[in-house]
Backbone:
């Protein structure tokens, strides 16, 4: 992790996060931004490895930055850093391509641990997010939605989602399904990826339906 | 020589009497029972003379009765004396008073018995009392009456046919009858009724009906034909006054001219009515009909009194033809547009046309004394029938309109209800939208302001205690915001959230957790408030275990009933120390847990003893 984007409007919190990030990735170059506008400028200028994005910003939503990163730098890991833990706020960010989320108010040891896990490919998944994802894919599978290129969850992925929705933790699910912690993490990653791919296809189709054609120069 | 003749009531009378079910023929029926008592005089000596007494010196001619002047003395205008001799008819009843009955005398008469004037019908000089339609009944004074050889002189004043508008009013004398007063009075009453009273009744009926129809038409301009029918009825009623109005202050010529004048407007109204009823509007024809109202009197005046009758007859046929044409036009239109009307109106109009023809023919035929008044009461009857028919049609239309109005009203009411409902729904929706928007605003404000400040405290405070408190406050705030959304959620989802939080928190604290939920699928839902409060209670319980109990194991049992949810949290820690008063320590958040449970109409029981751990039993209604 060399180049890290940190988008956070509160200076004190930004400093706090920056310190923690440097703890986890001592070698990192951290580009700080307090506004969506500044962050987008950085995205078009710098190649990042990791992005920590706040959602509620003075000039917009961090979801825009997540989407821009997903578009121009598909390999970058976008992590939402927020005080919103509800699916209402998180789900759009996940659809836009965010790879997990960290709650800001957590004690530093929890924060660094989560950050570590995400960067190692073990994103968190709360029951409410899992329910949203289940509902989303159920709607996609409905016949009238068949215009969308089918992105379907595998049986195992669905199984994991259902268990998360019921309140089981990922290690518990690993034990229940006799799967390694690593495999479970892969499923979760895969779920996030599919959510993003399906959402993008849906968005493109919607744009086409409205006669809007996204052009990239 | 006078001879006895069987007196019979005219067949038409009987027919009409039966048809109208009027029991007024009783008197004449009685006459049939004792026919021999009535003497009928069929001839008389006649002298045309203006003398005050029967001119015995003049040469009298024997004249058969009835005497129609237009045949016996054409063009004669003045007075004729009739003389006849008779023997008093034998009567069963010695007390009976005898009377002379003159069925028709036109225009007026005086009666002399044995040289004494015993009766006068009215003025014998111009303006002569017009008695043409009135039968005359003259009681014969017993004092003047002899058993045999009575001499009866009749002085008759009349107008030549040429000077009147109708043969009905041309001079003449019918046969005479002498018999008991009581019996002849019956005949007289019947004839007076049929000739005069019935015409009066019809006139009054027409007048009332006419005014009624005008009133109806006044308020319903679309039914203008009713206005014309009403005017026609009134015009007719006025015209019939000629029958019963016998004392007029103007001479015969003027009266006859006035009667002729009335014909044009009456016919004009009839024609216009028929055309209007057929929904035909011809302004030119209206003008022509108006012009005719002027033309007719002008022509009568020009023709002069000597040719009044001929001129009137010509006009009668012209007007009759107009009416027939109007009828034909009406029936033709009715045939193609108002088939239902065609048959009823067609029958009436054909009958009317036949009557008009009959009237014309009767008037042309001479020599009869009793004639013409068929039309006088049959026509009003027909007009009455037509009127009733029209009123019926109108009433039906009114009824239909009323029904339509009622339907419309109910529809309007339905529409109003629908609008109200929609409005209520819209208002509800609007309230929901506004509420949702406000919730979002409050939530955003809380996150942005309060959240940011609490977060700053969490990460900048030197004190762990304050950091923890701020963190807890942040969590509380988040939960409150969640409660703000107000959306109920499935108990199964709530259980998932609780399990994830509880297991992960206890796990982080190194406490083993044994969570068991309901075995079967849970379908109930719970309110957002219930969810939030339960989450708080559970979170508090877990916090207590982590902070104070020193437990290594925690057991959570969740049960979901039909209407309540139960959560039992049991740890193996050191329990809650008792206060001095024997109650459990309030510092451990127990009271706030109990308070929250109470707020939700549930209960939170805490059992604890040193060394036994703590059991929290939470029951909340769904």
Residues:
């Amino acid at each position: 992790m060399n180049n890290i984007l940190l988008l956070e409007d509160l200076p004190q919190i930004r400093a706090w996060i920056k310190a923690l990030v440097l703890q986890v990735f001592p070698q990192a170059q951290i580009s700080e931004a307090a506004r969506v506008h500044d962050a987008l400028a950085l995205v078009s200028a710098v190649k990042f490895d990791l992005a920590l994005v706040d959602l509620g910003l003075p000039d917009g939503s961090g979801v825009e930055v997540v989407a821009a990163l997903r578009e121009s730098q598909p390999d970058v890991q976008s992590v939402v850093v927020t005080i919103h833990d509800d699916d209402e706020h998180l789900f759009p960010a996940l659809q836009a391509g965010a790879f997990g989320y960290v709650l800001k108010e957590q004690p530093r040891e929890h924060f660094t641990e989560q950050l570590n896990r995400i960067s190692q490919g073990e994103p968190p998944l709360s029951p409410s997010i899992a329910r949203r994802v289940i509902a989303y894919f159920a709607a996609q599978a409905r016949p009238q939605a068949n215009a969308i290129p089918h992105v379907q969850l595998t049986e195992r992925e669905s199984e994991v989602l259902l268990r998360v929705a019921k309140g089981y933790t990922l290690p518990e699910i690993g034990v229940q399904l006799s799967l390694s912690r690593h495999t479970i993490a892969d499923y979760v990653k895969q779920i996030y990826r599919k959510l993003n791919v399906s959402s993008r296809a849906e968005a493109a189709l919607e744009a086409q339906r409205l006669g809007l054609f996204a052009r990239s120069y | 020589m006078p001879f006895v003749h069987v007196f019979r009531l005219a067949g038409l009378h009987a027919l009409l009497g039966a048809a109208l079910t009027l029991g007024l023929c009783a008197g004449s029926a009685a006459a049939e029972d004792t026919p021999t008592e009535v003497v009928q005089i069929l001839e008389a000596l006649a002298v045309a003379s203006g003398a005050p007494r029967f001119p015995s010196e003049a040469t009298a001619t024997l004249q058969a009765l009835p005497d129609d002047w237009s045949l016996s003395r054409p063009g004669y205008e003045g007075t004729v004396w009739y003389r006849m001799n008779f023997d008093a008819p034998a009567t069963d009843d010695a007390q009976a008073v005898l009377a002379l009955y003159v069925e028709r005398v036109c225009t007026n008469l005086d009666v002399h018995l044995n040289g004494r004037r015993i009766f006068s019908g009215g003025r014998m000089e111009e303006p002569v009392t017009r008695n043409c339609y009135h039968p005359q009944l003259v009681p014969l004074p017993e004092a003047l009456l002899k058993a045999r050889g009575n001499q009866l002189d009749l002085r008759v004043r009349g107008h030549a046919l040429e000077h009147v508008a109708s043969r009905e009013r041309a001079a003449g004398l019918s046969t005479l009858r002498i018999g008991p007063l009581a019996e002849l009075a019956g005949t007289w009453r019947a004839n007076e009724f049929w000739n005069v009273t019935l015409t009066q009744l019809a006139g009054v009926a027409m007048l009332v009906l006419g005014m009624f129809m005008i009133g109806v038409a006044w308020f319903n301009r679309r039914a203008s034909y009713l206005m014309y029918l009403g005017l026609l009825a009134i015009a007719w009623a006025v015209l019939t006054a000629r029958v019963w109005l016998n004392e007029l202050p103007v001479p015969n010529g003027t009266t006859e001219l006035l009667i002729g004048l009335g014909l044009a407007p009456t016919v004009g109204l009839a024609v216009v009515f028929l055309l209007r009823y057929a929904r035909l509007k011809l302004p030119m024809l209206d003008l022509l009909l108006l012009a005719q109202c002027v033309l007719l009197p002008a022509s009568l005046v020009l023709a002069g009194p000597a040719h009044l009758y001929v001129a009137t007859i010509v006009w009668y046929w012209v007007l009759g033809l107009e009416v027939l044409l109007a009828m034909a036009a009406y029936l033709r239109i009715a045939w193609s547009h108002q088939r239902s009307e065609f048959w009823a109106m067609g029958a009436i109009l054909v009958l009317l046309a036949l009557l008009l023809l009959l009237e014309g023919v009767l008037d042309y035929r001479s020599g009869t004394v009793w004639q013409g008044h068929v039309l006088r009461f049959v026509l009003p009857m027909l007009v009455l029938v037509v009127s009733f028919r029209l009123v019926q049609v109108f009433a039906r239309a009114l009824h239909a309109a009323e029904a339509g109005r009622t339907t419309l009203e109910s529809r309007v009411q339905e529409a109003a209800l629908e609008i109200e409902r929609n409005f209520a729904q819209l208002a509800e929706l609007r309230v929901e939208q506004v509420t949702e928007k406000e919730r979002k605003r409050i939530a955003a404000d809380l996150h942005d302001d309060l959240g940011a400040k609490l977060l700053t405290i969490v990460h900048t405070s030197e004190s762990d205690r304050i950091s923890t408190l701020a963190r807890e406050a942040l969590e509380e705030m988040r939960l409150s915001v969640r409660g703000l959304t107000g959306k109920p959620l499935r108990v199964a989802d709530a259980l998932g959230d609780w399990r994830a939080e509880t297991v992960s928190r206890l796990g982080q604290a190194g406490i083993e957790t044994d969570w068991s939920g309901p075995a079967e699928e849970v379908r109930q839902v719970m309110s957002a408030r219930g969810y939030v409060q339960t989450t708080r209670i559970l979170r508090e319980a877990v916090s207590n275990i982590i902070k104070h109990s020193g437990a290594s194991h925690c057991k959570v049992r969740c049960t979901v009933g039909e209407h309540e949810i139960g959560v039992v949290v049991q740890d193996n820690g050191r329990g809650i120390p008792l206060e001095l008063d024997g109650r459990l320590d309030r510092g451990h958040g127990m009271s706030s847990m109990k308070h929250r449970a109470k707020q939700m109409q549930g209960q939170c029981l805490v059992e604890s003893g040193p060394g036994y751990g703590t059991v929290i039993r939470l029951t909340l209604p769904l």
